[in-house]
Write a structure and sequence with these properties.
The chain has about 400 residues and is α/β, with parallel strands linked by helices. Helix content is about 35%, strand content about 15%. It has helices at about 25-35, 45-60, 70-80, 100-105, 125-130, 150-160, 210-220, 255-265, 265-285, 320-330, 345-350, 360-365, 380-395, and strands at about 65, 90, 110, 135-140, 165, 175, 180, 185-190, 205-210, 225, 240-245, 290, 300, 305-310, 365-370. Strands 1-9-8-5-4-2-3 form a seven-stranded mixed beta sheet, sandwiched between helices. It has a three-stranded antiparallel beta sheet with strand order 7-6-13, with no helix packed on it. The protein has a three-stranded antiparallel beta sheet with strand order 12-14-15, with no helix packed on it. The chain starts with about 25 loop residues before the first helix and ends with a helix. The model has no long low-confidence stretch (mean pLDDT about 95). The structure holds pyridoxal-5'-phosphate. The site of pyridoxal-5'-phosphate has 15 residues, from helix 3 and helix 4.
Length: about 400
């Protein structure tokens, strides 16, 4: 099988490019959105509140605040947690930059703790090593949809009086020790970007059981302005409101929230389909030498946002780049999640050095994300499997 790869000019496994992720919009979604466009409210009408109630109910949390995207949701949470200059916040480098950018927005300092080499989630032992008198919060990420070790992190947060803000952008619908994600941490963020489990185009939400955090997030979403009489310093009449803090306009629209509600109804079937695809991948790759399939802890049930394979580079003649390029040439939309956040030039300029998180840095050289989204059909799944076999067998030592 000398020259069979598409990258060497042969026929690709697929004619049409398969993306790594994609939303699934149906006619009901379109109808709900059109109905809103014909109605009275485009933004901050009844649908925002209703969507928030739906999310609170789904996750089992007391409060939910929907905002313009997952990044602004994290920013709201950092504001509510009172993070400011001089405060350190511990997070993982194996994540999207939003998980630590939200700390920088508030003038705080992100501190990176390393990941575990089995789950790729943040290592509670390394969190503990990195706690100082300046540490104010921990932002664990449920990487790929597999809940991180929430009980251990909760214990650390309680012991050291830290706020726990969970970046669950990957984990809507996941469970941890039988409980829904969205209730263990002080605040939990979800994203509704089109590659995530359900979409509102752009969108995000914070869930919490704390009335205080809830009110702080609400405040930050709209310029720090409130009409809540119990929060205002005085009340001059029906027109009156007060700006208490410097917030933003991080609002989400009714148009987005009706889409979110319509999508939420299908979340169960979306996750079920993701699990079916994962099962096929796992079975297909079980005996393929050269790659390691995702490890799952018994105590949690992932909602499978991403399927990340790890290359056993010792068994291959090439590096990740060659495998990545070869899969792409087969028209398989591979990706890499993630470039360690501290590798980015912006973070390098802030003084973060390579070498601070060896497990994450080693993993980065070896990972490839395969396509995974509910709308993939069985043929799409077979194509991915075929392409991985073709490429890995070709490059095997
Ligand atoms: C998607 C994502 C976010 C939020 O992203 P938005 O595009 O702003 O909604 C935050 N953290 C992680 C890990 C993500 O994957």
């Amino acid at each position: 099988m000398d020259n069979k790869l598409a990258i060497n000019g042969e026929k690709p496994v697929r004619e049409k490019y398969l993306p790594y992720a994609q939303q699934w919009i149906d006619e009901e979604d379109i109808k709900r959105v059109s109905d809103v466009l014909r109605g009275d409210y485009l933004t901050t009408g009844p649908s925002v509140r209703e969507f928030e109630q739906n999310i609170a109910e789904y996750t089992g949390s007391k409060y939910a605040v929907a905002v313009s995207n997952g990044t602004t949701a994290l920013h709201c949470a950092c504001f509510a947690a009172g993070i400011g200059p001089g405060d350190e916040v511990i997070t993982t480098p194996m994540t999207f930059a939003a998980s630590s950018n939200c700390v920088l927005y508030q003038g705080g300092t992100p501190v990176f703790a390393d990941i575990k080499s089995d789950t790729y989630n943040i290592d509670p032992e390394d969190i503990e090593r990195k706690i100082t008198s300046r540490t104010k919060a921990i932002i664990p990420v449920d990487f790929t949809g597999q809940p991180t070790e929430l009980d251990e992190i909760r214990r650390l947060a309680d012991k050291h009086n830290l706020v726990m803000i969970e970046d669950a952008a990957h984990a809507l619908g996941a469970t941890y020790k039988g409980g829904n994600i969205g209730t263990v941490s002080d605040m939990t963020e979800f994203s509704f970007h089109p590659v995530k489990h359900i979409t509102t185009g752009e969108g995000g939400v914070i869930t919490t059981n704390s009335k205080e955090y809830y009110e702080r997030v609400l405040l930050f979403r709209t310029h720090g302005i409130t009409r809540n009489p119990s929060l205002m310093t005085k009340n001059e009449g029906g027109w009156y409101y007060e700006q208490l803090e410097l917030g933003n306009n991080y609002r989400i629209t009714d148009i987005q929230c009706v889409l979110g509600m319509s999508q939420l109804k299908r979340l169960g079937s979306f996750i079920a389909r993701r699990k079916e695809i994962v099962k096929r991948y796992n079975e297909a790759f079980k005996n393929l030498e050269g790659i390691i399939t995702p490890y799952q802890r018994q105590e949690c049930d992932s909602s499978w946002h991403l399927y990340v394979i790890q290359l056993e580079l010792e068994k291959l003649k090439v590096c990740r780049k060659e495998v990545f390029d070869a899969l792409k040439a087969e028209n398989i939309g591979v990706n890499v999640h993630y470039i360690p956040v501290h590798y980015h030039p912006y973070y390098q300029k802030l003084g973060y050095k390579k070498g601070i998180c060896p497990n994450a840095e080693k993993l980065y050289e070896r990972i490839i994300t395969l396509p995974l989204f509910p709308k993939m059909n069985d043929k799409d799944v077979s194509d991915v499997i075929e392409a991985v076999y073709k490429v890995i067998s070709y490059y095997k030592r």
